[in-house]
Amino acid sequence: MKARYVLISAGAILVLAGCNDKDKEKSAQAGEPEPVAVAEVVADSVVIHKKFPATLKASDVVDLMARVNGALVSQNFSAGDKVKKGQVLFTIEDARYRDAVVQAESQLETAKSTYAYASKNYAALEKALESDAVAQIQVLDAKSAMEQARASVANATAALQSARTTLGYCTVRAPFDGDMSVGEYSEGAYIAGEGAAQKLATIYDNSVLNAEFYIDDASYLRSFTNENGRSKINYDSVPMMFEEKLPHNYYGRLVYIAPDVDTSTGTLHVRAKVKNPYGELRDGMYTTISLPMKLDPNAILVKDASISTDQLGKFVYVVNDSNRVVYTPIKVGAMANDSMRVVTSGLNRGDRYVTRALLKVRPGMEIKPVLTE
Question: Which residues contact 113 (CB under 8 A, 6 or more apart)?
Answer without folding.
Answer: none
